[in-house]
UniProtKB/TrEMBL annotation:
<keyword id="KW-0808">Transferase</keyword>
<protein>
    <recommendedName>
        <fullName>Ribose 1,5-bisphosphate phosphokinase PhnN</fullName>
        <ecNumber>2.7.4.23</ecNumber>
    </recommendedName>
</protein>
<dbReference type="InterPro" id="IPR008144">
    <property type="entry name" value="Guanylate_kin-like_dom"/>
</dbReference>
<dbReference type="InterPro" id="IPR008145">
    <property type="entry name" value="GK/Ca_channel_bsu"/>
</dbReference>
<dbReference type="GO" id="GO:0005524">
    <property type="term" value="F:ATP binding"/>
</dbReference>
<dbReference type="InterPro" id="IPR027417">
    <property type="entry name" value="P-loop_NTPase"/>
</dbReference>
<feature type="binding site">
    <location>
        <begin position="15"/>
        <end position="22"/>
    </location>
    <ligand>
        <name>ATP</name>
    </ligand>
</feature>
<dbReference type="GO" id="GO:0005829">
    <property type="term" value="C:cytosol"/>
</dbReference>
<feature type="domain" description="Guanylate kinase-like">
    <location>
        <begin position="8"/>
        <end position="182"/>
    </location>
</feature>
<dbReference type="Pfam" id="PF00625">
    <property type="entry name" value="Guanylate_kin"/>
</dbReference>
<dbReference type="GO" id="GO:0019634">
    <property type="term" value="P:organic phosphonate metabolic process"/>
</dbReference>
<dbReference type="GO" id="GO:0033863">
    <property type="term" value="F:ribose 1,5-bisphosphate phosphokinase activity"/>
</dbReference>
<keyword id="KW-0547">Nucleotide-binding</keyword>
<keyword id="KW-0418">Kinase</keyword>
<comment type="pathway">
    <text>Metabolic intermediate biosynthesis; 5-phospho-alpha-D-ribose 1-diphosphate biosynthesis; 5-phospho-alpha-D-ribose 1-diphosphate from D-ribose 5-phosphate (route II): step 3/3.</text>
</comment>
<dbReference type="InterPro" id="IPR012699">
    <property type="entry name" value="PhnN"/>
</dbReference>
<dbReference type="GO" id="GO:0006015">
    <property type="term" value="P:5-phosphoribose 1-diphosphate biosynthetic process"/>
</dbReference>
Length: 190
């Protein structure tokens, strides 16, 4: 019997809306060798855009849950989110797998994935407000609600958390993430 392959860490990127999670993840993917990204499944219409995700209806989501197709799922902001079980395949061939997670799903993710590193992305309130207003997806009241939630703390009990300030140049945030992740990443595998 051959030894079980070591799985790459799951790198959960969390932070408030407008903090630049997707930009940070995309930049990390181009800069860190072997890093891969797991797309989320979301009950959001495909034309709403934002991140790259798999859009499903609530009925489809419930069916996928019943089929045990998800490694992790949660509800936030009136939508359902999930990480497909295919993340385990990625973890066998990647140096690390980056995924956009919700703060409320982190403790469960730590249990499910065992090696979970949380990149807690922050930005100043002024930067967040400017980014939310610039993207134009939320009305003024929703922008205010999102800004009020921005300082929600991470849950107690997380083992590996790295703070990333993304208020300035993206390259600086990527460099901070890369330096923090390097000791955790697996060698590139075919």
């Amino acid at each position: 019997m051959s030894p079980r392959p070591v799985k790459a860490p799951v790198i959960a990127v969390v932070g408030p809306s407008g903090v630049g999670k997707d930009s940070l993840m995309d930049a990390m993917l181009t800069r860190i060798p072997g890093l891969k990204k797991q797309r989320r499944v979301i009950t959001r219409a495909p034309e709403l855009g934002g991140e790259d995700y798999v859009a499903v209806s609530e009925t489809q989501f419930a069916d996928l849950c019943a089929e045990r197709s998800f490694a992790l799922h949660w509800q936030a902001h009136g939508l359902y989110y999930a990480i497909p079980r295919e993340i385990d395949v990625l973890r066998r061939s990647a140096s690390g797998v980056v995924v956009n997670l919700s703060r409320k799903a982190l403790l469960e993710a730590q249990d499910v994935f065992s090696t979970l590193i949380v990149l807690s992305v922050t930005a100043t309130p002024e930067v967040l407000a400017a980014r939310l207003n610039a993207r134009g997806r939320e009305d003024r009241a929703e922008v205010e609600r999102r800004l009020a939630r921005a300082s929600t703390p991470l849950p107690e009990g997380l083992l590996h958390v790295v703070e990333i300030d993304n208020s300035g140049p993206l390259d600086a945030a990527v460099a901070t993430a890369e330096a923090a992740l390097t000791p955790w990443l697996q060698p590139e595998r075919a």
